[in-house]
Automatic annotation (TrEMBL):
This is Serine/threonine/tyrosine protein kinase. The lineage of its organism: Eukaryota, Fungi, Dikarya, Ascomycota, Saccharomycotina. It holds the Pfam family Pkinase. It comes from Hyphopichia burtonii NRRL Y-1933. PROSITE patterns: PROTEIN_KINASE_ATP, PROTEIN_KINASE_DOM, PROTEIN_KINASE_ST. GO terms for biological process: ascospore formation; double-strand break repair via nonhomologous end joining; filamentous growth; mitotic sister chromatid segregation; mitotic spindle orientation checkpoint signaling; protein catabolic process. It comes from the Eukaryota. The keyword ATP-binding applies.
Length: 371
């Protein structure tokens, strides 16, 4: 594989096209680092290659290239999952290739994905600095798209396992949302144990905090609730200073977990079992206090999502039919992207046959107009 050592531009003989499975010769020009994670680096780049239909060499992009050390013992789950998923609210993988680093001589896996200009963490921060929140219609559209992506993934049994605002890409000019970072994702098999030390602390479901070995895709729904709450509050809702204190933060909103919760999640749990109720009102009133500036339908949705017991936590399809989203179904529903003088309409209900199957009997409710 020819390489132009440690340069921003290099040519590769074999870049695999994810859609066709064929490999092409390409020149990659990297020009901007857009993300640096625990394991990988994400750079913005353009690719120069010959597209078969017109047979001329052209520059394509921009793309986002995620580079992580190539796995030697087992297949990369991130690549495996991104190769098979195909959904408007999940970042799409366009190409992939392995390349030897000129710095440490190790082989790195490169995932070439469509590039979005921002993520939800930056959007929340942008509005917070102006002392606003993301406008409600945008919040609804983003939440709906995020839940749609979860309906799709959970339908295959795939759990993302690291839902948080920085892993949710957005394009504010089209109010489009796509989940990224499948580095922690896994297909969860029923009754099979998985590591519980996944997910970023503020967004970890309570069952993960107490070390539940057999959890479900409902851990992502907890993350969804934390993300919705963060859009309303402008900051993470549960900011525990240690893994155990995270549970205390949660109990400040939900009350302490029932004793049965600890036993059901993990009979081996030996950590602190919070028992004291830290507020005197009902849980509903506590939600109203904390989300005092949020509309009642949003509070009702959060009450259904932020639930200790994953069996009673809302499912993606029950979230999608919640009244919080009724506005999106109105025929004249339009949003003004940030800074735009003209509104745009969004195509949020273009469900595939597979998604309609997953919705089951709720499909009619979801597709009927609210007017
Ligand atoms: N396709 C993309 N388009 C635009 N930006 C992207 C894209 N993919 C990733 N990013 C940006 O790069 C950041 C890091 O990406 P990613 O989370 O996949 O890497 P990571 O190494 O797993 O990071 P972390 O350890 O922080 O989770 C993201 O938060 C996002 O802002």
């Amino acid at each position: 594989m020819p390489q132009n050592n440690h340069s921003d531009e290099y040519t590769l003989d074999q870049v695999i096209n994810n859609l066709s499975g064929t490999s092409n010769r390409m020149t990659v020009t990297e020009y901007n680092k857009i993300g640096e994670g625990a394991f990988g680096t994400v750079v913005e780049a353009v690719l120069n290659y010959t597209d078969p239909p017109n047979n001329t060499e052209e520059t394509h992009g921009p793309f986002a290239i995620k580079r992580v050390p190539a796995q030697t013992e087992y297949k990369s789950r991130e690549l495996e999952i991104l190769r098979v998923v195909n959904h408007p609210n999940i970042v799409s993988l366009r190409f992939f290739f392995d390349k030897k680093s000129s710095i440490d001589g190790k082989i790195y896996q490169n995932l070439v994905m469509e590039c979005l200009p921002s993520n939800l963490q930056s959007e929340i921060k942008y509005y917070r600095q102006l002392k606003y929140t993301i406008p409600y219609p945008h919040m609804k559209a983003y939440t709906f798209q995020l839940t749609r992506a979860m309906l799709y993934l959970h339908g295959f049994g795939i759990s993302h396992r690291d839902i948080k605002p920085s892993n949710i890409l957005v394009d504010p000019s089209s109010v489009t949302l796509k989940i990224c970072d499948f580095g922690s994702a896994k297909k969860l098999e029923p009754n099979q144990s998985s590591v519980s030390y996944i997910c970023s602390r503020y967004y970890r479901a309570p069952e993960l905090i107490v070390g539940c070995p057999i959890y479900t895709t409902k851990i992502d729904i907890w993350g969804l609730g934390c993300v919705i709450a963060e859009m309303f509050l402008g900051k993470p809702i549960f900011q525990g200073q240690s893994p155990e204190l995270q549970l205390k933060e949660i109990s400040k909103l939900l009350g302490p977990p029932p004793k049965t919760f600890y036993f059901k999640s993990n009979p081996q749990y030996r950590g602190n079992m919070y028992q004291n109720k830290l507020f005197s009102c009902s849980v509903e009133d506590r939600f109203k206090q904390i989300f005092s500036n949020s509309p009642p339908d949003a509070i009702d949705l959060l009450l259904k999502i932020l639930v200790y017991d994953p069996d009673f936590r809302a499912s993606p399809r029950s979230v999608l039919v919640h009244p919080f989203f009724y506005e999106l179904k109105k025929e004249n529903f339009k949003v003004y992207p940030r800074g735009a003088s003209e509104p745009i309409s969004l195509n949020l209900f273009n469900f595939s046959k597979y998604e309609l199957e997953l919705l089951g009997p709720l499909k009619d409710e979801l597709l009927k107009s609210s007017e």
